[in-house]
Write a structure and sequence with these properties.
The structure is a homodimer of 332-residue chains.
Chain A: E1 8-13, E2 17-23, H1 26-31, E3 39-41, H2 44-53, E4 57-61, H3 64-75, E5 79-82, H4 89-100, E6 104-105, E7 117-123, E8 129-134, H5 148-152, E9 154-160, H6 167-182, E10 186-190, H7 194-199, H8 201-210, E11 214-218, H9 219-226, H10 231-238, E12 244-248, E13 254-258, E14 261-265, H11 279-292, H12 297-311, H13 323-331
Helix pairs in contact in A: 3-11, 9-10, 11-12, 12-13
Amino acid sequence: MGSDTRTLDVVGIGNAIVDVLVTSDDAFLEAHGLSKGGMSLVNAEQAQQLYAAAGPGLETSGGSAANTLAGLAQLGGRAGFIGRVRDDQLGAIFSHDIRSVGARFETPAALDGPATARCLILVTPDAQRTMCTYLGASVDLDPDDLDLYLVRQAGLLYLEGYLWDGEAAKRAFLAAAEVMRSAGGQVALSLSDAFCVERHRDSFLELVDGHVDVLFANEAEITALYRCNDFEAAIEQVKGRCSIAVLTRGALGSVVIGEGRVHHIPPYVLGPLVDTTGAGDLYAAGFLWGLCRGEPLERCGQLGSLCAGQVITQLGPRPRVSLPDLVTKHLG
Amino acid sequence: MGSDTRTLDVVGIGNAIVDVLVTSDDAFLEAHGLSKGGMSLVNAEQAQQLYAAAGPGLETSGGSAANTLAGLAQLGGRAGFIGRVRDDQLGAIFSHDIRSVGARFETPAALDGPATARCLILVTPDAQRTMCTYLGASVDLDPDDLDLYLVRQAGLLYLEGYLWDGEAAKRAFLAAAEVMRSAGGQVALSLSDAFCVERHRDSFLELVDGHVDVLFANEAEITALYRCNDFEAAIEQVKGRCSIAVLTRGALGSVVIGEGRVHHIPPYVLGPLVDTTGAGDLYAAGFLWGLCRGEPLERCGQLGSLCAGQVITQLGPRPRVSLPDLVTKHLG
């Protein structure tokens, strides 16, 4: 299919998750053996136990790639998402939220099996988020029911590293990447989480070398991938391995590597820091929005940095302000 | 049962509801024929249609009396809540949230029938909230399964006017009030909503005259109840009809009438106004917390005003800060 007949800018594949945001503290993390800032996988029973021990929650649609595609749609991009929910109340919430911002989401809900995925997100007073994910129905996504039609509609395929935690989801991911590349499109990957990188390091190294055009990673993830001691060494490692590498460093800003140049992008401070949930996801949303409009890489980075700067001033990973208005105000 | 053997300060009966908060605008309200600031009842089909048309949501436990009892528990009060959810995911969220702040909630979930109640709350840029409630399982509460044991544990019974919208729930309410009064306890009523007052005016007039010790109402509700043209006339009407009347006026503060006096309580401005959802509910929480500790009425009003002042600076009706810390900071 030629690029002129494509109806989507970006299609994403990821875990379809509803977040349960809970205000928490370091003592709770320690008591439950949770690593601050990380993502732990939990089974249904562990999820239930942690939830029972946690304070009152605020529920919102989440999922890393889903947050990115929802953000892209909010910016005005043509976005599609592929992921699996159950036909339950949380699945209906997830489906509503991503469609209501204009993204296409057509993966049929599972009619049996585990419930829709939930992620308990413990937000500490330092605005860090620590995640405990029950993957539930989202790991049931497999190549057989992957919507390759939707993949072929897009010029870029966006994948989250978390998919590697489910064997079927990983195969679905690789099948989609194959389809995208043979259609002449690009593949982008987010490494998702340093612990996730540790779990699947060999797979990711191979993938980044040969199959990924745009790589998103934060400092912890990229240094885990290349087993570097510092960020500068990681930059040297990643150069030339993919067309574009986007490396984020929280309050230190971000670095965009591509077209033979290294761009240093400052962070945007738009208000008090509330919750870092979704920062990386919204950076990717802003960056990809610029990229699919053919903007220079430096401006793509600024768009990403701005969207990340907004989402960390609120609770939860889906911006509740107009992103186009934000862009107009800060970037013209 | 003597007051010395009571294990609860306040028990509340109300609709057990999960709120879906959506950022909206006046055009949406007009297009769907919704009265700004009010609460409309919708059936399952209407609820689905409105939700499909609305933007992405943020889910949180709600319900007027439930918000009040959760707030009372957060303040350190001994709180119980009676209301009916279904055994579904939203019901589990409601149950978790109210128990996790320390309130007792033991009403068994319905095993069949309608789903857990949902309220679509459209928050406009002026911070007003407009509510569309699907009562679902909450109207299945009836006298047969009312937990009168829990009612007998408390010194004060708190009821929301919204219960009048369900015939069985209304009967449950009256049965509980009878039990409470014969046990020597007090009965408090919130009028809930001006439209609700219009629907059930005769019932409410009779109730306030003979069966209510503490009445909570906002300006629109109390003027609707007594068909007064202005607030001062309503104050004159309500004097002497119940021991204590608490009348709230938003940014104009509130008035506490009781023990032969009228106290004018200023509002607390704790930050930018974000969402008025739960303002009246949290006022009642703070007021009842003072009342059950034997505080003077003026201070009860200040406690209510402070809790209401906090909840309107955030999205949703359940405070996400420590209310005891707030009280210590502002009221010593």
